[in-house]
Amino acid sequence: MVRVVVSSVLDLPVDEVWRVLRDFNSHHTWHPAVAESVIEDDLPPDTVGAVRRFRLTDGGELREQLLDLDDRAHRLSYCILDAPLPLHDYVATIQLRPVTDGNGAFWSWSSEFRTPPAQAGEMRDLVANGIYLAGMHALDGWLRRGPAPLTVARAPEKRPAPPPSPPPGTGAQAVVMTRHGGPEVLELRPVTSHDPGPGEVRLRQRYIGVNFIDVYTRTGYFDLVDPPGVPGMEAAGVVEAVGSGVTHLSPGDPAAYACPPPGAYATHRTMAADLVTRLPADLDLAHAAAGLLKGITAAFLLHDVARIAPGDWVVIHAAAGGVGSLLTQWAAALGARVIATVSTAEKADHVRTLGAEAVVLGRGQAFLDEVRHRTGGEGARTVFDAVGRDSIHASLEALAIRGHLVSFGQASGDIGALQIGPLASKSVTLSRPNYGHYVATREMMETHARRLFDALAWGIVTIPAPTIFPLDRVREAHSALESGRTMGALVLETP
C-alpha cells in the first residue's frame, strides 16, 4: 500500500474552513483541478453514502463516495469508486484541528491506495502535490478572496511567433568561451548546426537561461568546459528535427532542457533527446528558459535533499534571486515559516509578497537576532544557502540542534576549508548537492520537471518575467548576474 500524508496550517478559523470542506460537492468552486461536479441522485452533499461525479480540468472523470462525516471532530472520509488513474482501494481522510497558539486551522489530508510498483512514485507525487497541496493552497486563497470561482494560474501570453529558422548549417551562432576568466572571454561566433542522429533532437533555441553555474564554468571554478567551448546548461525553443528512435518529441514541439553537458549558449543545438522535455502549452519559452533549471533545483532541494514539513522554520538566503524566489514561494506553500535574507529594501518588499514571514537585510547580527526571536531561541530547522563564503558561518550559527544546512551555491565565493568537528556542537547535517546528480536520467529529469509544471499550473509558484539580454550582449548579462543587482532570472534572446 502507498500512504500519503500532507498537512498545512491555514490562518483561518476551523469552522470557516470546515464549512467548505464538509460540503462534499464544493471542490469544483475552489480546487484548480476540478472543472465541474454533481452529487448523484440529488442527495444532500453531506449525506454519508452520497456519490459525487466530477470532471477534471484535463477531461478525466471520477466518482467518489462519502464514507463518514463528523462535524464535532471536523473529519470526513471518502473513497474512489471510479478513476482514470491506477488508484486502487483509495480511501482518504480530511481532518481539521484548531492550532494551539492562535485562531488557525491545522489541516491534515491523508490516504492509502494500491498502485503498480512502477507507478508508485508518480502516483504518490500526483496525490500529494497535484491534489492535496494544490487544494490546500487554493482553498486558503479562495477563502481569503471571498467565494469567487478559482481559475488555474497560467503563464503570461506567448510572444509572437519568431521568424522561420535558417536551413541547417547556416546562420547558426554560439557564444564561445575562449579561455577561463571574466565576461570578456565570451565571444559570439558563427557555428555549424548538425542534423540529429539516432536518439538525438535539433532545437532552434529562442531563449537561454543565464545561471551562476555558467559563471563558475567561465571562471574555471567548475571544470565543465575546456576552452574554447560553449557554456550554458538551460534553454528553451522549438524542435526542428528528431533522429530515429525519438518518440516523445516531434518537429514543432515547444521544448526545453536544464542539464549537463554544457553548450546551451547557441541559436541551434543538436543533443540527446532524452535530456529534452516537452513543455506544457501554457508555459511560454522565455519563462521556461528563466525557470526550468531554477525550478528543478527548488524541486529537488525541497523534496529530495531537505524534506520540509509544515511549521518548520526555514532560512533562505538571496531570496529575491532566481532559485531563492522559487524556494521561498514553494517552501511557504508547503507550510514552512520562511525567514528570508536579501541585500536591498526593494528586494525585501518583493520577497514579502512571495510568502516570507520575516525578511532581513544582510546576514549579520541583525539576521541572527531575528532568527532567534522568531524561533524562540531554537534556531532554524533548515538553511538554504547559495551565497557561500559571506554567509556560511551565519548559516551554521542560525541552525537549530540537528538542523540541516543545504549549501548549494557560492555567489560570494568558495566557502573554503570547513572543520567538521565543530558541527557536532549542534549535530548539524551539511549537504552539498550537485545538480547533475539529480537530473542524470530522463526519468529523474521528467520527475522534477513534472513537479515544477504542476506547481506552476496550480499557482503554487510563479516565474517572474525575466530580464532579457540579446545574445550578443552576453557579457553584460554575466556582469549583471555577478553584481547581485538583479532580481529574478536572466535570459539571453537569440536573433
How is this structure best described in words?
- With 495 residues, the chain is of the alpha/beta class.
- The protein folds into three domains: 2-145, START domain (Alpha-D-Glucose-1,6-Bisphosphate, Chain A, domain 4, 2-Layer Sandwich), CATH 3.30.530; 173-292 and 437-493, Alpha-Beta Complex (Quinone Oxidoreductase, Chain A, domain 1); 310-433, Rossmann fold, CATH 3.40.50.
- The chain is 26% helix and 29% strand.
- It contains eleven helices and 22 strands.
- Strands 1-7-6-5-4-3-2 form a seven-stranded antiparallel sheet. Strands 10, 11, 12, 13, 14, 21 and 22 form a seven-stranded mixed sheet that branches. A six-stranded parallel sheet has the order 17-16-15-18-19-20, sandwiched between helices.
- Helix 6 (322-333) links the parallel strand 15 and strand 16.
- Helix 3 (120-145) packs parallel to helix 10 (442-457) and helix 5 (285-305) packs across helix 10.
- The longest helix is centred in the first third of the chain and has 26 residues, at 120-145.
- The radius of gyration is 24 Å and the shape is globular.
The helix fraction, in percent, is 25-40%
What structural class results from the helix and strand content?
Answer: alpha/beta
Mean pLDDT: 89
What is the distance, rounded to the nearest whole angstrom, between the alpha carbons of the first and last residues?
53 Å
Percentage of residues in DSSP E strands: 25-35%
Radius of gyration: 24 Å
What is the CATH homology-level superfamily of the largest domain?
Answer: Medium-chain alcohol dehydrogenases, catalytic domain
CATH architecture of the largest domain: Alpha-Beta Complex
Indicate the CATH class of the largest domain: Alpha Beta
